[in-house]
Design goal:
The chain has helices at about 50-60, 105-110, 120-130, 145-160, 175-195, 205-210, 230-235, 240-245, and strands at about 15-20, 25-35, 40-45, 65-70, 75, 90-95, 165-170, 200, 215-220, 220-225, 250, 255, 260, 265, 280, 285-290, 300-310, 315-320, 325-330, 340-345, 355. It is an alpha+beta fold. The structure holds adenosine-5'-diphosphate (ADP).
């Protein structure tokens, strides 16, 4: 007779009904969340929606009021008792680098490896510093390197003890955009090479879409949608998610002869798929504009009511005959002025529909 089989790969993170209030503020409200082995999940949402609070409860920096958290199959918080942070197999990286100022980068990275042999420790530190591209700075102190280099060292230090889970709270928010992109790419390859699962908090939707295997979108303490980038961007569950992840216009959907349509023409959707009062989510890149030649009969003509220069494209807001406004980012060869008219075509005939 053999005993019960242990789970071969317990999920790095399993959260059920996580709830946390501060006084009268319900900061985290019944959150369920699972992480797969090796997965990078980005937690996004507007400021104050509870992202940091959720991360802090996973880290053990604050305790749940109710619910459970398991890390690598072990309960670390059951709503009554919370394991202290230093006893959780969890690494953390915050925006404000938290390196010890009196230790070199190498000693900072090796700090959590004091129980290993000196040879083991030295090898691991060297490998990790190389992986994050700062092997040549091993003997420098934190104040002798740049902000980006300090954050690379912070990431290496958090990964060094091989945590079951890495938590990152807006770690690169203070870096300038070009550097942020580079350090982010390095982080992703480090997580892949070391197969470290991670939860990354961000309030930046472009960062979230670029970075995460999956996104968890949070609003007012709750997770409103969890899924891969294209799933959440192309199939948002509501207006809030659609707007939060990027520019979107919303056009009312009507049923005409059994077929759904917007003001910009028929949709390739089944009438039965359309709930009463639904609106189509229209992304600017899915709208094309063409100059109006002569009397436009078959075309829907809009008037440019606003425009802004983005570098790679111009963004135009066009008022349609009904008064609805759609946003478009046509190729930069087309330049329109305020007051110009253009034929407006919706290229995506299967847009997401959300409640109006
Ligand atoms: P986010 O990280 O998404 O910006 P937070 O988790 O920091 O959001 O905050 C969620 C809510 O909880 C906010 O209303 C915030 O004001 C409140 N809050 C966070 N930390 C504390 C605290 N230590 N004391 C009281 N209220 C807090």
């Amino acid at each position: 007779m053999s005993g019960p089989e242990p789970a071969p790969h317990p999920a790095p993170l399993r959260v059920r009904g996580a709830t946390k209030s501060y006084g009268g503020t319900l900061a985290v409200d019944g959150v369920d969340l699972d992480l797969d082995p090796g997965e990078l999940l980005v937690l996004v949402g507007p400021s104050g929606c509870g992202k940091s609070t959720l991360l802090r409860t996973i880290a053990g920096l604050s305790a749940l009021d109710a619910g459970t958290i398991e890390v690598a199959g072990a309960a670390v918080d059951d709503g009554r008792r919370a394991t202290p942070p230093e006893q959780r197999p969890v690494g953390m990286v915050f925006q404000d680098h938290t390196l010890f100022p009196h230790l070199t980068l190498a000693d900072n990275v090796g700090f959590g490896l004091r129980r290993r042999s000196a040879t083991d420790r030295r090898r691991r530190v060297e490998d990790l510093l190389e992986l994050v591209g700062i092997g040549h700075l091993a003997r420098r102190y934190p104040h002798e390197v740049s902000g980006g280099e300090r954050q690379r060292a912070s990431v290496a230090r958090a990964v060094a003890p091989r945590p079951a889970l890495l938590l990152l709270d807006e770690p690169f928010a203070a870096l300038d955009p070009n550097l942020r992109e580079q350090v982010r790419a390095e982080l992703v390859s480090l997580l892949r090479v070391t197969a470290t699962p991670a939860v990354f908090v961000s309030h930046d939707q472009a960062e979230a879409l670029a970075l995460g295997d999956r996104l968890a979108v949070m609003r007012a303490g709750r997770l409103v949608q969890v899924g891969a980038g294209p799933e959440v961007y192309d199939r948002p569950v509501d207006r809030f998610v659609a707007r939060f992840l990027g520019d979107a216009s919303f056009l009312p959907v009507a049923i005409d002869g059994g077929r759904p349509r917007t003001e910009l023409g028929p949709l390739d959707l089944d009438g039965g798929e359309v709930a009463a009062g639904a609106v189509a989510v229209v992304r600017p890149a899915d709208v094309t504009l063409a100059p109006v030649v002569g009397e436009a009969v078959d075309e829907v003509v809009g008037e440019v009511v606003d425009r802004s220069y983005q570098g790679p494209t111009w963004t135009y807001d066009l008022r349609l005959p009904s008064g609805s406004v759609v946003r478009a980012t046509p190729p930069r060869t087309l330049v329109l002025e305020r007051g110009d008219r253009a034929a407006v075509v919706l290229r995506d005939r299967r847009p997401a529909l959300v409640a109006g």
